[in-house]
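Course assignment 3, question 2. Fill in each field.
Student: A.L.
Task: Predict the tertiary structure for the chain below.
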Amino acid sequence: MTATPAAVTVTLVTRMLREAFEGPPGPWTYFTDTAPGTGVFPTITGLTAAQASKVGGPGRTTIAGHVHHLSASVALSAAELRGDPSSRDRSRSWTVSTVDKAEWAALRARLREEYQKLLVAVETHALWDEDALGAAMGAIAHTAYHLGAIRQRPQAH
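Answer field:
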């Protein structure tokens, strides 16, 4: 059995992250709908602060809360890939629930920034051991979960 080359791992992980955040790359997908606009960014782009602050779902959360939580989680995954010792405790990442227009714009910008940092961390990671692959796959799965939770809200799609 031979190891998967790092370049293949990086390509696959970045492709899946792009699908989760930006939407499907073409006529097929790994896990999202094939329709345009199904990634995190296209899903949240047209939402107002009031829509993002509306409570709903089983946990009585808001889209703003999901986006804040996802930003923190993506930042932790990137830090782990960079070798920065950090806690995986995400409990403090649920501190945002309502936002005004400026806060909503800043929250979306922060998510995009943390996503870009994660892409760089993936693209520059040298040794894809179990911990690194777990951090990357965990970020993809976690993003997919929150994408689904956000898209379940009637105003989100």
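Instructor remarks: The helical segments are 6-22, 40-45, 49-52, 63-82, 101-124, 130-151. The mean pLDDT is 90.
Grade: pending
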